[in-house]
Specification:
- 70% of the residues lie in helices and 0% in strands.
- With 183 residues, the chain is mainly α.
- α5 packs across α6.
- The N terminus is likely disordered.
- It comes from Rhodoplanes roseus.
- It holds the Pfam family TetR_C_11.
- Keywords: DNA-binding, Transcription, Transcription regulation.
C-alpha cells in the first residue's frame, strides 16, 4: 500500500468498500478476470482512487490478502509450548495449503509493498505469544527465530515450490528439532 491510512473516516470507508468489492468479485469470477475498473465500479469509487492508494492491482490484492491473513486472536493455550506450537502449526498449515490460502500467499508474494513483511510480523507475533506463555509457565526459552527458520520456512518452501505433501509427520519432525516432545 502506498500511503498510511487513517483508522477512521473516508479513508477507512473506501478501504472497506474496496476490500469488500475484491472479495465479492473473487466469488463471482476468476482472479485473472479482476480489473481495477471492475473493482472500482463495485466499490463505488473511481479507478484513480485505487491507483492512487494501492498503485497496482497486485498491491491491492496483496492488501486484501494481508487483511484476511491477520490473526483473529492469540494462538490457543494448550498448557505447553510444544502443544501450543503443534496446534498453531496444524491450523496455519491447513489455512496456507487451502486453495484460498495459496491464492492469498501468491498475492502477497507478488506485490511490491510491505505485505510480505506484514505477514511475517503476524506470524512472528503468534510465535512470540506462545514463547511468552511458556516462559510464564517456567518452560525452557523458545527460540522464535529457530521456529521461523527451521519449521515455518521449510513448510512454506514445500508449500510454494515442492510437490511433496506438508504432512503432519514431516512438520512434527521439524518441530522436534526446535522443541522436543515431552516424555
Amino acid at each position: 500500500m502506498k500511503e498510511s491510512l487513517r483508522p477512521g473516516g473516508r479513508s477507512a470507508r473506501v478501504q472497506a468498500a474496496v476490500h469488500a468489492a475484491v472479495r465479492d468479485l473473487l466469488r463471482d469470477r476468476a482472479r485473472s478476470e479482476l480489473t481495477i475498473p471492475a473493482i472500482a465500479t463495485r466499490a463505488g469509487v473511481t479507478p484513480s482512487t485505487l491507483y492512487r492508494r494501492w498503485g497496482s492491482l497486485q498491491d491491492l490484492l496483496a492488501d486484501v490478502a494481508v487483511e484476511r491473513m491477520r490473526p483473529e486472536g492469540d494462538p490457543d493455550d494448550t498448557g505447553s509450548v510444544r502443544g501450543d506450537l503443534e496446534e498453531w502449526l496444524e491450523q496455519y498449515i491447513e489455512e496456507m495449503t487451502s486453495v484460498p490460502g495459496r491464492a492469498m500467499t501468491r498475492d502477497v508474494l507478488g506485490c511490491t509493498g510491505a505485505a510480505p513483511r506484514q505477514c511475517a510480523a503476524f506470524l512472528r507475533r503468534q510465535i512470540e505469544v506462545i514463547a511468552a506463555r511458556g516462559a510464564a509457565r517456567g518452560e525452557p526459552a523458545l527460540d522464535v527465530d529457530a521456529v521461523v527458520d527451521l519449521v515455518v520456512a521449510p513448510v512454506m518452501y514445500r508449500l510454494l515450490f515442492d510437490t511433496a505433501p506438508v504432512d503432519p509427520a514431516w512438520w512434527r519432525g521439524l518441530l522436534a528439532r526446535v522443541v522436543p516432545p515431552a516424555g
